[in-house]
Every structure is written in structure tokens, then in C-alpha cells.
Design brief:
By secondary structure, the chain is mainly alpha-helical. The protein has eight helices and two strands. It has two domains: about 90 residues, Hect, E3 ligase catalytic domain; about 45 residues. Helices cover about 55% and strands about 10% of the residues. It has a two-stranded antiparallel ribbon with strand order 1-2. The radius of gyration is 26 Å and the shape is elongated.
Length: about 160
Amino acid sequence: MNDLEDIDPEFMQSLSWMLTNDVTDLEQPFIYELALFGSTVVQELKEDGMNVTVDETNKKQYISRVCLARTLKEVEQPIERFKKGFYKIVPEHLAKLFASGELEILISGKSELDIQDLMKNTTYRDLNKESLLVQWFWEIVATMDQILLANLLFFITGK
């Protein structure tokens, strides 16, 4: 439920309200309506959910299933479409040869920033690599951890 709170605080507030209040008068069917590619799709959260009303005896089950639908089912179709497109570029049998971390490196490159590489590929205006100011800069950069380096690179490049 914590993930959902980050995604949609208003939705989570409604579910929290359901947990602490009597829901009998809401006459909420055991369904979840999801927006999918511009249309609304009704998903029954249990057999014959359209005809089952959420009440005090089943509200925890409803909340559990609606959270599952919201976090997993709602992204299932877009993920399948992504996989279909990805497998057109990298055949599935080849993609399965790699662990997820290896695929990430192949697609995005190493996430660790190499200070020596940054120094070697930096271009200077009005200064050069022998300038005292530039030397001080690289001394400070050498003390930074990967998170600070990433922030510095984002600040410098905007990417």
C-alpha cells in the first residue's frame, strides 16, 4: 500500500477511509474501474463481483484486491506491449541469456561514473587542465561519491 500512496495519495486516502469507517451504505460493487488507453475497463475483483457488495466482512479483501489490481493489473498490458516491441529489437531467446543487470548495462551503460574519463573528456573555456582552479575542482570531485558525481554531471550537462 505504501507504493500506492506515492502514486495516488487521494486513492489511498479513500482506501484508508474504508478501513476505518463503515462501508455498508456505499453499496460499492466488488469491482475496480481502470482507465486504459482512454477508455474505462471494469474488472471484477472476485467471481460475480458486479453483484457482490463490499461490506464490513469483506472490505479488507476488497482493499487488498483493488491494490493488487492498481499496482499490477493496470500496468500488465503496457508491459506486455513494451516486451513485444523490445523482443522485435532483441529476440527473446537472446535477451534471456542475460541477467537483468547485464541487460541494463548493455542498454544504458555503466551507472558508475569514471572520474578519469570525465577529466580526459572535459573541454575548458578560458582555462586549461593545468590551471590551479581546474586542479582544485578535480581534487574536490575526486572526494565525491557516485551520487554526488551523478548530481554534478546532471548540473553541468542538464542530463
